[in-house]
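#struct-help
A.M.: can someone run this one for me? Single chain, 385 residues.
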Amino acid sequence: MDLERFRTSPSGRLARAGQEPGVYWAFVPHALPPPLSLDPPMVRLLSDADRALGELAGLARTIPNPSLLIPPFLRREAVMSSRIEGTRAGLADLYAYEAGLPASPPSDVREVHNYVRALEYGLEQIRTLPASLRLLRELHEHLMDGVRGEQATPGEFRRSQNWIGPPGCTLNQAHFVPPPVPEMTEALDAFEKYLHADDIHPPLVRLALIHYQFEAIHPFLDGNGRIGRLLISLLLAHWNLLPLPLLYLSAFFERNRQQYYDLLLAVSERGAWPDWVSYFLRGVLAQSADAIGRAKRLQDLLTDWRSRLIRARVSAMTLQLADLLFQYPILTVQQAADVLGASYNAAKKTFGKLVEAGILQELEGSIRPKAFLANEIQEIVESEM
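D.P.: on it. C-alpha cells below:
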C-alpha cells in the first residue's frame, strides 16, 4: 500500500501491524459521520434522487399485485452484484438453475443463487429486527454456503488480515489494506452504533456513508462487496424509504465499475466524500427511473396476460401458473405441479394452455426434464432500460 496516498487522509489513519520481519501498514477509517457539507449542486442532486425514489415508492403503493414484481427485481440484483465480483452467470443461468436444469458455470450460478437466498433472508429479518452485526454475519453465512470462498469462515468476521489488489499480489503490494483485526473490531462496534444513531444527514446520504464505511472496514475474508451492496437494499426497506424492495444499485455500480472502485478509494486517500456521495445519488436517480420503467412494463405484461387468459375462459390454475412465472420464468411441469399442489397431468394440461396463448415456449435444448420459458418476462428483466 502506498502510504503517502493515505498519510494525510481526513477519513482515517494509518495503523502499523504485524511483527518483524512481517510489519505492514493498514488504513483505519474514522467513525461516521464525517464532516460533510452539502453544496448547492449536491443539494439539487439529492432533491432529484429523493423525488425519483418517491415516484418509485408511489408506484409501488398502487401496484395491484406487488408480490409478483419483487422476485424479478431481486434476481436481477443478485446477478448484477455478483457480476461485479467476477461471476459469469446470467439471469437465464439463474432461472435454469432454479428449475433444476444444468447451468453453466455451475459454481458461478450457485454464488448468484446464494445471493438471492441471502437477500430474501435479510428482507424477512429486517421486518422485525434492526440492522446489526449479527444480521451481517447471518447474511454472510447464507452468501458463502457451499461456494468458492467457503473456506473463508462463512458467518464469521475475519480473524486475520485481508487486502485488496491485483490477483496474486502480496499484502505490501496491495492497493488498500483494511484495518487489522483489533482495529476492525472497534470500527465495527462504531459502525453498528451509527446504524441506529440519529444523524443530521438525509437518509440517502447516510446510505452512501454506510456503504463506504463497510467496504473500508472489509470485515469478512471474502464477500464484502456483495454484503455491502445487499445492506443498501435492506436499509432502504428498514428505514421505510420504499414500501417494496424494488430499488437496487448494483446495475449502476456494474455499468460504472471502475469509477465505483476509484471513488471508494478516493474517500480513503483524500476524503473525497462529496464525489462519492454525488456518485451514489446519481445511482439512486438512475436506478429509480430504471425500476419505474421496468415495473410498469412487468405490470402491463401481467395485465395483458390476464386479459387474454380470462377471455379464453381458462381455469384458476392456469391463472395461478401465469402468476408463478414472474418468480420462475423457466419452469418444468413437475416444478409447477409441486408449487401449485397439483398432479403432474393437471400441471401439464395447464402448461398447454399457456403455450397455446403464446405465454410459454418450450425451452430450446431441454429434454429431460422438459422446461418452458416465459420469454417476455426474461426480456423485460434482462433488457437495458
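A.M.: thanks! The domain at 312-382 is CATH 1.10.10.10 (Arc Repressor Mutant, subunit A).
D.P.: also worth noting: Strands lie at 12-17, 24-29, 330-332, 361-362, 371-373.
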